[in-house]
Amino acid sequence: MLIRPPGVYPPQLDTWLLVRALSEAGVPSGGHAVDVCTGTGALAVAAAYAGASKVTAVDVSRAAVVSAWLNCRMRGIEAEVLRGDFTAVLGGRSFDLVLANPPYVPAPVGAHTRGIARAWNAGSGGRAVLDQLCVALPALLKPRGVALIVHSALSDPDTTLAQLRERELKAAVVARATVPFGPVLRRRAHWLESAGLIGPGQRMEDLVVIRADRIRQ
Q: Would the CA dihedral through 33, 34, 40, 43 be positive or negative?
């Protein structure tokens, strides 16, 4: 059970899909892992259980940072937990494993990006954070490092794959699941239809986990 203060994104199906992908990834143990947009720290905990010898977790939310620290400490995990934008607080550092469940829900202009809503609202195409992550990832990965990123097909996995490959990373979809819309997407369904992001009456989405490997030194 994970401690989750008000305002912190709860682990959901996307989190557990990424955890499953991590368990199947064959990532060598003993490395340094970072959980970007950590929320409760669920993925930081999963990284430690998968064999990471050092774990770092990052989030812009003060409540999330506290939650992640507590959830790691309760399990005896000596995680480094940092507050701030990952592009700033991780500058100049690199990792053997990068895990990310970033905000990825397409949002209309003017949608809130404060409080818990910033855990999912990600601009009109759902890529406000994903694009930043794709740019930053080559520098965040050590040689032979691995990244696992989960997001919805509504935020265009092909763009993620293309951006990673343009930056000389090997990238592929390694896990997929079709799930019913959660509360946020159900409330936003009519806007998504009007924006052409889903078909009429569509109330299911595909979640994907994309793996990226740094194969160059």
A: negative
| CA 148 and chain centroid, separation | 8
| Phi and psi torsions of 6, nearest 5° | -55, 140
Q: What is the rounded distance in angstroms from the CA atom of residue 118 to the CA atom of residue 8? A: 10
Per the structure block, which two tokens stand in for 163? Answer: 């951006």
pLDDT score at 217: 65
Helix, strand, coil share of the chain (percent; to 5): 35, 25, 35
Q: Which residues pair with 207 in a beta bridge?
A: 152, 177
Cβ neighbors of 110 (< 8 A, separation 6 or more) are: none
pLDDT beneath 70, residues of the chain: 112-113, 217
Is residue 104 a contact partner of residue 129, using CB atoms and an 8 Å limit? Answer: yes
In whole angstroms, give the CA distance from residue 98 to residue 139: 11
Phi and psi of 109, rounded to 5°?
-55, 135
Q: Give CA–CA dist 101/209, Å, rounded.
A: 9
Q: Checking DSSP bridges between strand 32-36 and strand 95-100, what pairing results, if any?
A: parallel
CB 140 within 8 A of CB 167: no
Q: Is the dihedral of CA 214, 56, 20, 136 positive or negative?
A: negative
